[in-house]
């Protein structure tokens, strides 16, 4: 007891409790600092959330924008558009818009006054863009087409010559065909030919898939056909490609259902558009079909699709030419014999031959080789045949004899 009193007198005990007290305080300060920084983080998070909700409210309160489709970009500041409400307008382009993305057919949003393009809409939201595709100048040339020399010649006479030298037809007093119908099995180069013709004539290429008009754009077919011809005239010289025309132009026994009536309206509009322009205008129409036999004779009348060209399955020489094109940039091993491949792929379409080349190259790549061998091609032929055809491959020792049949 006496010693404690002595310690107290000396101030030692007081010092010890002071030290503890200060330590406690320091700890508390540290705790509070941690709490403070946590609270700051929480506040920042709430601020962020608040900003987000504010922007959402602003968006909800903003006036609606107007949807439109670009017809033509006039210069850096202005474009011609067709607004979804009907009229064709010349509008300004907001400075922040990436002008390289504005093309005929691009779907855009106009501000509420309909005076300025303020946004480029994603492709999938635009029914027009899905309904037809516009390519200013396709980069396919005649060199990219294997075989089909005679068909190319006929197309050049029917389309390229009147587009490039209309006066020749005037001098001779004859009318070139307005429309050309290409028919034959799928994947043999019909679309490719149409694109090549557009390329060689520097024409705008507008592709309309008729089956989509009939299935996806119900109730809009006739309007879309009208718009396509309007656009083609504005962008002339132009080539309109109507793929799978049988979807809207098949012979019909009766047009009873509303769907049938709608398809008939689309066809009527197409025929009216074709009848309405001069054969020497700068707009040409190419249609394709796999089913010539089911077409309504009305579309084959003079002044409509009065030139019919068959695009058949390629023969051996055609297959060789197509293989040469699709292996043009491929490093081939010495044992690769394209003539042999052409001989054993009877019945293959151009699309099949392309698939065989791609498949062979992929096999080499999978095996870390940068050179494609005959073995890769043999594998690819079997694979493509197996995927697309019924059992037609007979493997005879090291040789493959593939007999392909068009389904
Ligand atoms: N004669 C050919 N020369 C080179 N490649 C070809 C040829 N035919 C087809 N191909 C290849 O096959 C692909 C498909 O051909 P394309 O789209 O022109 O066929 P299509 O006859 O229009 O078929 P579909 O009737 O299905 O539309 C082409 O992109 C091309 O790579």
Assign the CATH architecture of the largest domain: 3-Layer(aba) Sandwich
- Number of separate strands: 14
Helix coverage percent: 40-55%
Distance between the termini: 113 Å
Structural class: alpha/beta
Can you tell me the CATH topology of the largest domain? Rossmann fold
Mean pLDDT rating: 83
Give me the CATH superfamily of the largest domain: P-loop containing nucleotide triphosphate hydrolases
Radius of gyration: 35 Å
Largest sheet: 6 strands, mixed
Residue fraction in strands: 15-25%
What is the number of independent domains?
Answer: 4
Strand order of the largest sheet: 6-8-9-10-7-11
Which ranges are low-confidence, i.e. pLDDT below 50, for 5 or more consecutive residues? 124-129, 389-407
Q: Spell the H/E element sequence.
A: HHEEEEEHEHHEHEHHEHHEEHHEHHEE
Overall 3D form: extended
Kindly provide the name of the CATH class of the largest domain.
Alpha Beta
**Tally of alpha and pi helices:** 14
Chemical compounds bound to the protein: adenosine-5'-triphosphate
Report what the structure shows.
The chain is of the alpha/beta class. It has four domains: about 1-60; about 65-125, OB fold (Dihydrolipoamide Acetyltransferase, E2P) (Beta Barrel); about 135-310, P-loop containing nucleotide triphosphate hydrolases (Rossmann fold); about 315-405, Helicase, Ruva Protein, domain 3. The chain has 14 helices and 14 strands. The chain has a six-stranded mixed sheet, with helices on both faces. The chain has a five-stranded mixed beta barrel with strand order 1-2-3-5-4. A three-stranded mixed sheet has the order 12-14-13. Residues about 125-130 and about 390-405 have low confidence and may be disordered. It binds adenosine-5'-triphosphate. Adenosine-5'-triphosphate (ATP) binds next to helix 6, helix 11 and helix 13.
């Amino acid at each position: 007891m006496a010693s404690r009193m002595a310690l107290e007198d000396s101030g030692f005990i007081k010092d010890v409790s002071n030290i503890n007290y200060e330590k406690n305080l320091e700890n508390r300060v540290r705790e509070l600092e941690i709490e403070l920084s946590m609270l700051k983080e929480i506040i920042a998070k709430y601020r962020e959330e608040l900003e987000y909700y504010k922007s959402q409210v602003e968006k909800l309160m903003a006036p609606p924008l107007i949807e439109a489709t670009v017809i033509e970009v006039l210069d850096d500041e202005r474009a011609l558009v067709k607004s979804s409400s009907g009229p064709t307008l010349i509008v300004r382009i907001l400075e922040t818009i990436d002008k390289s993305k504005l093309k005929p057919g691009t779907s855009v949003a106009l501000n509420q006054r309909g005076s300025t393009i303020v946004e480029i809409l994603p492709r999938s939201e635009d029914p027009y863009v899905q309904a037809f595709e516009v390519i200013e100048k396709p980069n396919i040339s005649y060199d990219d087409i294997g075989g089909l020399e005679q068909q190319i010649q006929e197309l050049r006479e029917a389309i390229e010559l009147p587009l490039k030298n209309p006066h020749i037809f005037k001098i001779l007093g004859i009318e070139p065909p307005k429309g050309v119908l290409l028919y034959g099995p799928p994947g043999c180069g019909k679309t490719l030919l149409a694109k090549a013709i557009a390329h060689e004539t520097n024409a705008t290429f507008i592709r309309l898939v008729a089956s989509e008009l009939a299935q996806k754009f119900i109730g809009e077919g006739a309007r879309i056909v009208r718009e396509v011809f309007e656009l083609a005239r504005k962008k002339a010289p132009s080539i309109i490609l109507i793929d799978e025309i049988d979807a809207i132009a098949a012979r019909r026994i009766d047009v009873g259902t509303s769907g049938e009536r709608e398809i008939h309206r689309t066809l009527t509009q197409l025929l009216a558009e074709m009848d309405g322009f001069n054969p020497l205008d700068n707009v040409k129409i190419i249609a394709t079909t796999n089913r010539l036999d089911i077409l309504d004779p009305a579309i084959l009348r003079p002044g409509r699709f009065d030139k019919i060209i068959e695009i058949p399955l390629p023969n051996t020489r055609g297959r060789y030419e197509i293989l040469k094109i699709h292996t043009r940039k491929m490093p081939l091993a010495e044992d690769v014999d394209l003539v042999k491949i052409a001989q054993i792929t009877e019945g293959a379409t151009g699309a099949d031959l392309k698939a065989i080349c791609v498949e062979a190259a992929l096999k080499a790549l999978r095996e870390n080789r940068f050179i494609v061998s005959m073995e890769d091609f043999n594998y690819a032929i079997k694979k493509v045949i197996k995927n697309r055809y019924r059992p037609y491959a007979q493997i005879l020792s090291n040789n493959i004899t593939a007999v392909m049949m068009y389904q």
